[in-house]
Amino acid sequence: MEWRRSGKGRGYDQNPKTKTEEGTVWTATTHAITAIIGSGVLALPWSVAQMGWIFGPLALIGCAYVTYFTAVLLTDCYRTPDPVHGKRNHTYMDVVRSILGPKDVVICGIAQYILLWGVMIGYTITTATSIMKVVRTDCYHYKGHDAKCNTSGTLYMVLFGIVEIVLSQFPSLEKITLISVVAAIMSFAYSFIGLGLVAAKFASHGSPQGTILGVQIGADGISASTKIWQSLQALGNIAFAYTYSMLLIEIQDTLKPSPPENKTLKRASLYGIGVTTIFYVSIGCVGYAAFGNDAPGNLLTGFYEPFWLVDLGNIAVLIHLVGAYQLYGQPIYAKYETWLSNKWPESPFIHKVYKLPLPFTKGKSFNFTMCKLVLRTAFVVLTTLISLMLPFFNAILGLLGSVAFWPLTVYYPVTMYITQASIKRKEARWWGLQALNCGALFVSLLAAVGSVAGMAQQLKHVTMLKTEL
């Protein structure tokens, strides 16, 4: 889910006379695939392992279907009040405001920004894990697998935070377009490397590993409660991997008005989610077949040879997350800085621009305000500290998936479609959509409980501010 369209301000020119819509079903399909595939793919074999050969694949396919179905509903809400001839809404929040009103915008905004911040925390943890894996893999390769190659990720999280402090000083998303493109390329690189590694491992022993119900109580050294919490985390991980709705409206905003954008994006969503599902089921199931119930929480941490390919995969994760971190951080910066600017329009701390000449350039300078320098730095530092205290890859992904799945993927698309299509209460369609709504809420609550419980269990066995592999 690391795609953004470059443009003006928050990503788009709001003047319809200057805005260009040249997108087709194929460009939208490409954007959809890029938007969905991200670091969540690394947790899929572990997620399938927690639920086994029956419920694991069913969860992958079920989340895909729900994602597609609600995407179809959301595409009809892009224009209001008529899905073909109505007014354009350029972002997800614009659609919520136009159909449901300002109160829902506040609630939706809270859910969105919690998710954005949570992803930044998750990316900090994942980056440290990837760097530790590179160090450990190289240590084993050159010193042998009997060598003591334990490594700590604390330093790597701090270094990653320092890099993000520097990148956070870029004015807006439009200034980091190249980073966004590189991030998307890297996400495909490590995904295919991971798929290749698990396919080779599976081929090496020929028969599929794993059990019908996944990780076994007692036999695999876990208790009944741990089995339950990890299975619920796995649901959240899968839901996180399919997160798409937040970017759907922005993708739709790139399309030509003829044929109608909603028809084009329905086809693109079918193709994009279909391709992604095939890929996810392949990597999840082949990964489980290769590792069995011992599938690692992060796919790339389960390999040591060929060391150069494992290193390439983890370096691709690192490069991807360096850029993707800012794609999630910049909207948060923009939101609170806009609020501060309107609240204190005369404050020098917020508005006075300082210029720092850049060496070896022709008159160029780095422009900043004390507000951006201090608050963005403080925000990244706080994010890094939380990551150091909660270094749990799968539990964090599960919690993020639970936060995003019900409100952003199901509740708002369903509620807005009911309003937009004027579906009357208690008619058949209304009951069906509300059943989906309630079911998704139940799954999200279970995933959230499982993830929090999993973190509570793991906190008993870790040292705060110390991450090890």
UniProtKB/TrEMBL annotation:
Which Pfam families does the record associate with it? Aa_trans
Question: Sorted alphabetically, which InterPro entries does this protein's record hold?
Answer: AA_transpt_TM
- Annotated GO biological process: amino acid transport
Tell me the keywords, alphabetical order. Amino-acid transport, Membrane, Transmembrane, Transmembrane helix, Transport
Q: Where are the transmembrane segments?
A: 25-46, 53-74, 110-132, 153-170, 176-200, 270-291, 307-328, 373-390, 396-414, 435-456
Task: Tell me where on the tree of life, at the top rank, the source sits.
Answer: Eukaryota
- Where is this gene product found? Membrane
Amino acid transporter transmembrane domain mapped to chain residues: 22-455
- UniProt-annotated stretches for the region Disordered: 1-23
Please tell me one Gene Ontology term that the record gives under cellular component: membrane
Q: What is its main location?
A: membrane
Q: Is this entry keyworded Ligase?
A: no
Q: Known PANTHER family for this protein? A: OS05G0424000 PROTEIN-RELATED
State the name under which the record lists this protein: Amino acid permease 8-like protein
Instruction: Look up and give the organism this protein is from.
Output: Carex littledalei
Tell me the classification of the organism that encodes this protein: Eukaryota, Viridiplantae, Streptophyta, Embryophyta, Tracheophyta
